[in-house]
Amino acid sequence: MTYLLKRKLLHLFFPTRCPVCGGYIGAMERFCGECAKKLTRYEDSFSIEGAESFTAAFVYDDKVKSAVFLLKDGICGNAGYALGGELADRLNAEGIVKDIDVIVPAPMHRRDVRRRGFNQSAIIAKELGRILNIPTDNKSVTKTRHTHTQKGLGKVGRAVNLRSAFAASDDLRGKRVLLVDDICTTGSTLREITAAIKKAGAASVRCACCCKTNSHKN
Ligand SMILES: [Zn+2]
């Protein structure tokens, strides 16, 4: 059964909802018309040290917050579809899809995956892989050290907290990698993971996330 058919069948029993306002929408829709209009598209530019490019779909604000909350809580299946679809559109518009061999989600420590039950970045990576027809790799990059939450830490504190927390395997040698995360704040996490992937011999790393906060600039 194709993905689209599966989605339409599922919609018959569990009608698709807008991940922002919760209103019912069509089976193939991402958001309701009103929310799609009021969400803030990310128009700024940002760079991650060591990465070729940085792409974000939305500015992280109160409007998109509920969709990200649903993604992290795993309550609403449509949050991954909606946010992943928007990010795929943005990557296509930037014309960089042809320069990607593999999509890698920002890893969570196994203890956190156990607690939550899934990695929300892996949901976005899977959605991008399906839409862009690029393989995903959930195994080659791991978070080897459990770290404290980044919340409340400044840019320097965040970088120190994450130092040597990630590792990447040889499987990424020579590959052009798209590293995917849900939210980017200061870029410390993406920078640390990018460094680990490049250390493993990847040809290049590009970064993409659903939302970028506006509070930190490079
Ligand atoms: Zn809505």
What does this molecule look like?
The chain is an alpha/beta fold. It has a single domain (39-212), classed as Rossmann fold (3-Layer(aba) Sandwich). The chain is 39% helix and 16% strand. The chain has eight helices and six strands, in the order ααβααβααβαββαβ. Helix 3 (62-73) crosses helix 4 (77-93) and helix 4 packs across helix 6 (120-132). The site of zinc ion has 8 residues, from helix 2.
Radius of gyration of CA atoms, rounded to a whole number: 17 Å
What is the CATH first-level class name?
Alpha Beta
Give the fraction of residues assigned to helices.
25-40%
Strand percent estimate: 15-25%
Ligands and ions found: zinc ion
User: How many DSSP-defined strands?
Assistant: 6
Oligomer: single chain
C-alpha geometry: globular
How would you describe this structure in keywords?
218 residues; alpha/beta; Rossmann fold; four-stranded parallel beta sheet; binds zinc ion
SSE blueprint and pairings:
Elements: H1 3-13, H2 33-38, E1 54-59, H3 62-73, H4 77-93, E2 102-105, H5 110-116, H6 120-132, E3 141-143, H7 155-162, E4 166-168, E5 176-184, H8 188-199, E6 204-212
Parallel strand pairs: 1-6, 2-5, 5-6
Antiparallel strand pairs: 3-4
Helix pairs in contact: 3-4, 4-6
The protein binds zinc ion.
Brief synopsis:
The protein is an alpha/beta fold.
